[in-house]
Amino acid sequence: MGKNHVPHGNRSALVAAMQRLVDGLTLHGDKLGPMVIHGRLVSAQQLIDAINVIIASAGEVGRRKQEWREAVAARRRESRALRLAAELVAALIAD
Fold first, then answer.
1. E strands within 1-95?
2. pTM to 2 decimals?
3. How far apart are CA 92 and CA 75, in angstroms?
4. Considering the domain boundaries, does residue 95 fall inside one?
5. Quick check: is 54 in a domain?
6. Is position 90 within any domain?
7. CA-CA distance, 72 to 80, in Å (whole number)?
8. Contact 14/58 with Cβ under 8 angstroms?
9. Number of separate domains in the chain
10. How many CB atoms lie within 10 A of CB 22?
């Protein structure tokens, strides 16, 4: 059997597979006629454009997720600092 070209479930593998598809369509797109996708005739260039939008949005999702993770980590640090400050004040008042 040949190589398995099904990408694994992570985002970077899916984006790499989509990029390879775009590369192949770009290279051989002039030899392909229009394709029928979900009942619509689509040219190779239209398909390339649609896949490039998906690739760009996948990059945006990765950036937004990283920003979200950083915000959550900052909030946890802030929360921990406030909790420690409250414990310190409580200890000083108790003395």
1. 35-37, 40-42
2. 0.58
3. 26
4. no
5. yes
6. no
7. 12
8. yes
9. 1
10. 20
| Segments forming the whole domain that contains residue 24 | 11-69
Calculate the CA dihedral of residues 6, 66, 62, 60 and round it to 10 degrees: 180
DSSP letter at 6 equals P
In-domain check, residue 3: no
Q: What's the CA gap between 9 and 69, in Å, rounded?
A: 21
Q: Which of 69, 58, 51, 60 is nearest to 12 (CA)?
A: 58
Per-residue tens of pLDDT for the chain, all 95 residues: 456 565 566 778 888 899 999 999 999 888 888 889 999 999 999 999 999 999 988 888 888 888 999 999 988 888 888 888 888 888 888 87
Per the CB < 8 A criterion, the answer to whether 58 and 11 are in contact is: yes
Q: For residue 1, what pLDDT is reported?
A: 45
Q: If you count them, how many residues does the chain have?
A: 95
